[in-house]
Known about the structure:
heterotrimer; A: 80% helix; globular; C: 10 strands
Amino acid sequence: MQDFAEAFRLAFGLVAAMDDDLVEIIGLSMRVSLTAVLIAAVVGLPLGALLATVRFTGRAAAVVIVNALMGLPPVVVGLLVYMALSNAGPLGFLQFLYTPAAMIIAQSILITPIVAALTRQIIEQMNAEYAEQFASLSVPWHTRVAALITDARYALLTVLLAGFGRAVAEVGAVIIVGGNIAHLTRVMTTAIALETSKGDLALALALGIVLLAIALAVNGAVMSLRAGAESRAHA
Amino acid sequence: MKLKHTGFLAAATLCASMVLAVPGMAEDRSIIVQSTTSTQNSGLFDHILPMFEKASGIKVNVVAVGTGQAIKNARNCDGDVLFVHAKPAEEKFVAEGYGVKRFDVMYNDFVIVGPAADPAGVSGRRDAAGSLKAIADAEAVFASRGDDSGTHKKELSLWQDAGVDVDAASGTWYRETGSGMGATLNTSVGMGAYAMTDRATWIAFKNKGDFKIAVEGDEAMFNQYGIIQVNPAKCLNVKAEAAKSFVDWIITRGGQSAIAEYKLDGKQLFFANAAKEGAS
Amino acid sequence: MLDQPVSKSKCQLPLTVTGLAFSAGGARLIDGLDLVLTDHDTTVVMGPNGAGKSLLVRLLHGLIEPQSGSIAWNGEPCGPATRQRQAMVFQKPVLLRRSVAANVDFVLKLKGGSNRERLNRLLAQANLLDKAAQPARALSGGEQQRLALARALASDPEVLFLDEPTASLDPTSTQLIETVIAEASARGVKVILVTHDAGQARRLANEMVFIHNGAVVEHSSADTFFKQPASKAARDYLAGKLVI
């Protein structure tokens, strides 16, 4: 197919022209997904650390559930959030439906289990190493959790990147709760879906290439930040 | 020791600023129109909405889904205006009190598209039912929306006219994609299947491959669009005033002429016909 | 405040251990052990491999619950409360993935508050001041153990346990660590040291506890122990003959 060559040509053209609409869509994608990552981090990191360090009845079941939730289908999350935020739903009064806020909520729900589950695994390994030393020092549980998260921060950064990747690439949930409204809730993935449905496969692919480039840039930036900090202070 | 946290802090601050920077949720003077993919994908809204927004100062946000989904969303009070094409369902929506009143807006027509090879030999025919019968007899592959949309409902009524039981053939030559018009067209081009589409979407569609219009011109394939303001008595959050001014604009001269003058590839896509009922 | 003598009035001695037992995997690792420590001076625990020395100090520190018998620090049952006033240096130091200074600072914050002056004194004592900003885990083995010791002392313990702290360290690091231990002891910290190094025991011990088969075989002053060991097991061990 000549679509591939056409797509790359278009992708470069789009980026070179800094098309206003494209910049707006990229900006919204980043705002929505980074905010979702922030929320997932605030909830998922301590949750994962708690699951890793605190023994309680039902912990094994909780771990299985969190792990299973990593496989939440985006469309299902979209539907649940739609039903909750709809004016016919319990949270309709918030007037979040068809706004970026709804998209942030959906993506947060989608990636929090990923952050929590991967955090649990990383922190559990580190806790096994630290447990006796912490017990000897009589470290209280909240300091313990904070210390483990701090010490595992570079591994956890990768976890957050995984969450970001899932969020920014997801279409099923945001198209339902955001509505793919031009200049309001249209993000990279819903724009790609729209162009695909118009049969403009080259443009859709070009947008996909741009999305991939952005994901690469974000990952590259975080990783170089990490490498820099690590070489300064860590082994 | 401070240094090592700088990266994390920077990332956290960046993220925090994102929260604050999320653009204004729902502007004051804006409405949500639940509409269909055909109006969106054809580019009609991109043409007419700026005119209305300029004249009224009201921002129109379009959620483009299948007609069935659009009606369901509106029943959940998640929209101020419903702009779809399935007259019986629209009338039911009004009768149940969800809509204020239904107005005809415009029509376009459906066409049956198919591969150049034309395995059912229907190319050039006018009659929809007869052509579908021929496709069924030839067991030529046909891709249906299968998604309870306005187009899907129309297609099913035509199969009924043709006396073909498509449920029995589902999964063999009759294939239900369960997707929107664009996705269904992509699928049918991919597998060389006939498909029924509204003309507007077809003209705007870019992935035609060797497909052409096979059947067109039957009055049975006309596709009437209607507009309904969601009832503020049923849905308290409806922006009644703004919604009413949009409906009024669409069915009177401003909107009607905007629709009529919209052309793609030199072809008129929608034929405004609100005059018969007139504005209230 | 660290470098002030530990007040004897708040000290946890005497330590009273009665009928202590602990089994694992069908083996009786600690088997009816009795021990009373009243002296503030350094106690060195020796014994062949598998005698139960490491397990004993973990039990005394309250890291492991005894299966039977009792441990009391000045009449208070051994547990989280008694452990709070103690510190332990493990054979393999577990350092936080942070800088050298941050490792000590973590404990200072935990036990009352960051204090730059004290931090620097602790690092200087461990001869690590010039490496304060380096990642702790990039240090050499000897440096890591010195840091672990400085960190343990940062908690201002009344009792300091050391479980073979200089095993596999070079002589310079060993000597530095012994100096720090001796200084802590001189300030009134009760030191309980597990070692295989008879030379080290001679240099540091005031009294000796010799353990064999999960029980105390000999408990005497260091002088007596090294000059006239009473038990055959201790004589064989010192002669390098008792191996398990």
